[in-house]
Amino acid sequence: MNNFIESVYENCECPDTVEMINYIDDDDDEILDYQNYEKNFKNKFPKFLNIKNYYLEALSVSNSWNVLAKNSLGDIFIMGNDDLIYTTYGWDKILKEETKKYRDQIYLMWFNDGIKKNTHASFPIVSRAWYNTLGYFTPGCFNFGRNDAWLFQIALYLRRAHYIENVKIEHISFKT
């Protein structure tokens, strides 16, 4: 998780507009490590708008993302994972500019993961307006995978799928 958070922080121009929230199952064997990480992260990344771990009952990944969305401060939700690395400096400003293309703020965007590129939104980005309209960030019916595919299909149907090629991210586990 450290590499992911560090890459997000080091590559954003305005960290004070970025919130980093994580869902940790309260029965996770490494919960004490996560609690220590959280304390260290607040000192290591002081400019983040918010950095917080939620230690709650074990839920599906889909439902845990909905808990995070409900408790977030921001207007843009980015699906993330601890094995992601952000490599483009200024990704946050680029994203903010792209969102201006949608006056009603109904969109699904995604960055270039170097694998599926423009063919699939592996880590979808949606607005609070999208979330409020659907009533969820992820559908809640999947245990782990397919949340991205579900959202991507909705965006394609609505013609609101928007690929951001010039922001690069690496999905480390997918390569190994």
Rounded mean pLDDT score: 94
Number of domains: 1
Weakly predicted, low-confidence segments:
none
**Element pattern in H and E:** HEHEHEEHEEHHEH
As a percent range, the share of strand residues is 15-25%
The dominant shape is: globular
Q: Which secondary-structure class do the elements indicate? A: alpha/beta
**Name of the level-1 CATH class:** Alpha Beta
Count of β-strands: 7
Question: Which percent range fits the helix content?
Answer: 25-40%
CATH superfamily: Spore Coat Polysaccharide Biosynthesis Protein SpsA, Chain A
DSSP helical segment count = 7
Q: Strand order within the widest sheet? A: 3-6-5-7-4
Task: Give the second-level CATH assignment, the architecture.
Answer: Alpha-Beta Complex
Distance between the termini: 17 Å
Major β-sheet profile: 5 strands, mixed
Rg estimate, integer Å:
15 Å
Q: What's the CATH topology label?
A: Spore Coat Polysaccharide Biosynthesis Protein SpsA, Chain A
Protein name: Glycosyltransferase 2-like domain-containing protein
Tags for this model:
7 helices, alpha/beta, five-stranded mixed sheet, single chain, Glycosyltransferase 2-like domain-containing protein, 176 residues, Spore Coat Polysaccharide Biosynthesis Protein SpsA, Chain A, globular, two-stranded parallel ribbon
